[in-house]
Amino acid sequence: MESIFQYQSESSDTETYEIEDVQGTTAKVEPTSTQPKRKASTDETVCITSKCSTPTPYFTVDKNRRAKDQTSKEIKGYVSKRARLQLNNKNLEIQNENGSTASEVSNESQLSITKLLSLPSRIRSALDNKHESINIERSSSIPRRQIISLPKEHTKGVNSLLWCGSFGQVLASASMDCTVRIWDIFRSKKCVQVIKHDGAVKDIRWSINFNNLLSGGYDKIAKLSDVETGTTIQTFPHPQIVTALRYHPTQPNIFVSGMIQDGIRSWDLRTNKVIKETRKFMGSVNDIEFFPNGNNILTCSDYVVRNASDKNIMVWEIDSMTAISNQIYQEAFSCTALRFHPFRKHFVAQSNGNYIAIFGSEKPWKLDKRKRFEGHLVNGHPIRCNFSPEPDQGRFLASGDANGSIFFYEWSTSKIVKTIEDAHLGACVDVCWHPLLNGIVASCGWDGKVALWGVNTLSF
Question: Where is composition skewed (Polar residues) in this entry (predicted)?
């Protein structure tokens, strides 16, 4: 049964509204549109018939009129720039298909679209010049082919290579055949001097004046030799195998040696005696690097225990030989080589996890977890790496590989920019940039081969 709420005014010209009570029933009411409303008197009758004893009516506007009002005041929706451009393109295509003659309008629209989607000419030209300069620099700095193959005079694998800094034509190589060979690269392309040891030679270092060469290895002796005559100047006996050698960057009469078990020692060439040594060291010293200020040294070892290598990379104070930090690298891999960036506050470590890790060279020597150089293989070999010198300013990093290849990485992107495959038959263990000539690299491997790589073939 319907509930009805009726209200009648004196005028017959009325508009009809619907009245809806709480129960959902409706009633039509015709209020006055021309005369003002008046209060209902007590004599007027209001009929309410409902199932509920006390209904509570409320008013709602007619849905049809609401829709009509909304249609008359319709607001346009947001259209993105891309949608507008697509719509303009469609309109232009339709006009072209219909044979429209409004070519000027279409040209203007097309020009406006091109301006929106393209860069300004000055910015585009600057970017093009930048890309061209980058390509030119890369092509002139990264070796592409073998330019010199030295005679294979080493009968066993070669462990280390080192250019003579001020004399760019001289190269030294340390081998497992108990010899150190001095090569005249660009003139005779032959070995001009041989320094002999009683055991395999592990590492070599040029002196500050580049007249003498310091070498050490499995005969437990560090030997200082005259390069011109090949005679021995001094010997420094060690209790264990000598694995690494480094000269002090500011004091030319002091050098540091690392051993296979008994840690690190600092020596004075003037007295031929030990200055300081570490009392306790874990594992074999794989590499040593001096900090640029010369106050501290950085070492890496093969010490790994219980899936942790918290003592793998350590910082030592040179004066007291006490450890400053041993929590630098905590991955479960040992490291084979360390290199400081020549122009940035970073150093890298060649990891047996088949990547090169990056660290800050300032305390707390934090590991960069977002960036590393990977793509080559180490697989337990003593693979080394080196930064490119001036004018590249350390822009490229060269690394050997367990399969005999040479990898070149770019510092800023950590991506591989060049790979020389099958450079050596065995593992390529060391790669050394030429200190003066841009884009020339020397490499050695366990096949006993020493080779030079460059951009173009050299003619002398």
Answer: 1-11, 23-35
Per-residue pLDDT of 309-365, as tens digits, reads 667 899 999 998 888 887 788 788 889 999 999 999 999 999 999 999 999 998 889
Band of pLDDT at residue 57, cut at 50, 70 and 90:
very low
With contact defined as beta carbons under 8 Å apart, do 383 and 429 qualify? Answer: yes
pLDDT tens for residues 184-242? 998 888 999 999 999 999 999 999 888 999 999 999 999 999 999 999 999 999 999 99
**Which DSSP symbol is given to 424?**
S
Task: Return the closest-CA partner of residue 237 out of 198, 209, 185.
Answer: 198
CA distance linking residue 324 with residue 177, whole number of Å: 38
Compute the distance between CA of residue 450 and CA of residue 452 in angstroms, rounded to an integer. Answer: 7
Helix-then-strand count for the chain, H and E? 4, 31
Cβ atoms < 10 Å from Cβ of 315:
18
Q: How many residues does the chain have?
A: 460
Query: In angstroms, how far is CA 10 from the centroid of its own chain?
Result: 88
**CA 207, CA 130: separation in Å to the nearest integer?**
41
**Rounded distance between C-alpha atoms, residue 252 and residue 385, angstroms:** 24
Average pLDDT over the chain, rounded to an integer: 79
Give 160's strand partners: 174
* Closest-CA residue to 233 (of 253, 256, 262): 253
Contact between residue 260 and residue 245 where contact means Cβ atoms under 8 Å apart: no
How confident is the model over 378-424, as pLDDT tens digits?
999 999 999 999 888 889 999 999 999 999 999 999 999 999 999 99
DSSP 354: T
- The upper half-sphere exposure of residue 39, i.e. CA atoms within 13 Å in the direction of its Cβ, equals 2
For residues 68 and 25, the answer to whether their CB atoms sit within 8 Å is no
Residue 267, pLDDT score? 96
**Total Cβ atoms within 10 A of residue 214:** 24
Domains along the chain? 17-70 (no CATH), 144-195+375-460 (no CATH), 238-371 (2.130.10.10)
- Beta bridge mates, 289: 298
CA distance 152 to 162: 17
In DSSP notation, 318-338 reads TTTTEEEES-S--SS--EEEE
Q: Which residues contact 305 (CB under 8 A, 6 or more apart)?
A: none
Q: Are 331 and 352 in contact (CB under 8 A)?
A: no
